[in-house]
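If I may wish for something, please walk me through the protein I am sending here so I can picture the backbone:
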Amino acid sequence: MSDYFYREAVFYLSLITVALGGLEFLHTIYFQVRYQKKVDVLINGDNYIDGGWIFNASRMMMYAHYCLFPKRAERAGVEKAIHHIPVAIKWHLIVHWVAVILVCFFATIAYLCVRSIGGL
């Protein structure tokens, strides 16, 4: 394939990655301001610890993983707590999980396109 095709692919994949990443960043901030403490108290009990933005975002991924894969929540011993999380909050967690995976996927494909043409 021609270099032009790869340059176009890199441009559009980068555009999608940045747009989705920006929206995900805003969604993460919204979730942390609105729901993070409530979810942490439901899962961990009264010993809520605010570990900062990156730590809380990684916990969001973990909670979403538990929502998507109940057997994993069983092994961690939090299946009852996950069951009591409201459905709207579960959807926020799942959207966060899927968006992070998609951003990583699009960024990887864009990187491979750049590598295939020897750089920009």
Remarks:
- The two ends are 16 Å apart (CA to CA).
- The chain has six helices and no strands.
- The mean pLDDT is 88.
